[in-house]
Each structure stands twice: as structure tokens, then as C-alpha cells.
């Protein structure tokens, strides 16, 4: 039997999707194009690119609600579960962005936070992300607060 190569999705992304059966990486959340349905009722995710997938059917022409396509089914490279399909060709110009993208069944994917997302500390409430600095806490109403360094009174 040939040697099995498993690719990994870059850890720097916030979250990624893995095969829910064997846990191997499939796609980064950054490459998610669209969330919707396949075959009317199965929740599905469209990814611009994915790893560890191999074709598992002959190419076929199919007419879907958005037009006519040439598709090929894809399966997880490791556990061989059929997980969705790849768009090889889209007939309509406005659907061309789907070419080479993969539509995968959401129920067969597990969303995983990356190591970096887990390591990042939670920001305090008054931290302003826009400036990267701590904002001054709101000053209470009333007399102005005393100067920060008082002189000793003899
Ligand atoms: Zn798998």
C-alpha cells in the first residue's frame, strides 16, 4: 500500500474544519466562501480550497438551483468517507467563482479553534482594539479628582 500523506491547515488561522470521523484537517475558516444547503436540506459549507480530499466518483453534469455544473464527489483522504463535491466547471458566468471550490456537508465537519486562538488571552473590557492601548476608565461625576502625586503636608 502507498504511503499516506496528510496535509495540515495553517495554525495561524482563527479556526479550521476537520473531518469529524478521523480528525484530519480539511479547510481553514479563512477560505470559507459561503454557508448554505446542498440537495435542498443538507447544511453545507463552500470552501475556496481544502486539503486531504480526493475525488471518488466519475465527473458528472448536474443541474442545481443556481445553474448547470460539472461536479466530482470528494472523500476524506484518510478515512474515505464521502464528504461533498468539487465544482469543476460552472456554466453561468456569475457562478464561475465556484470552480475548483468544494461544497462539503457541514455535519461531517468539526469546527476546531486553532492553537493560536486558544493561547490568545482575553482582552479586558476597557481595552480598545482600535488603538491597541488601554482607554482611560470613565471618570465619575463630581469634583475633579486630586492630582496623582500629593505633597506631604508637613
Ligand atoms: Zn476522515
Topology:
Blueprint: E1 15-19, E2 25-28, E3 32-38, E4 42-47, E5 53-55, E6 60-64, E7 67-76, E8 82-90, E9 102-105, E10 109-113, H1 115-119, E11 127-128, E12 133-134
Antiparallel strand pairs: 1-2, 1-10, 3-4, 4-9, 5-7, 6-7, 7-8, 8-9, 11-12
Describe the fold and architecture.
This protein is mainly beta and 154 residues long. The chain has a single domain (15-122), classed as Peptide methionine sulfoxide reductase (Metal Binding Protein, Guanine Nucleotide Exchange Factor, Chain A). The protein is built from one helix and twelve strands; from the N terminus they run ββββββββββαββ. The protein has one helix at residues 115-119, and strands spanning 15-19, 25-28, 32-38, 42-47, 53-55, 60-64, 67-76, 82-90, 102-105, 109-113, 127-128, 133-134. Strands 3, 4, 5, 6, 7, 8 and 9 form a seven-stranded antiparallel β-sheet that branches. A three-stranded antiparallel β-sheet has the order 2-1-10. Strands 11-12 form a two-stranded antiparallel sheet. A hairpin with a 4-residue loop joins strand 11 (127-128) and strand 12 (133-134). The longest helix is centred in the last third of the chain and has 5 residues, at 115-119. The N and C termini lie far apart (89 Å). The relative contact order is 0.19. Mean pLDDT is 81; it is low at 120-135. Bound molecules: zinc ion (ZN). Zinc ion (ZN) is lined by residues 19, 21-22, 24, 76, 78-79, 81. Residues 126-154 are annotated as: Disordered. Residues 15-113 form the Yippee domain. InterPro entries: Yippee, Yippee_fam. This is Yippee-like 5. Residues 137-154 have a biased composition (Pro residues).
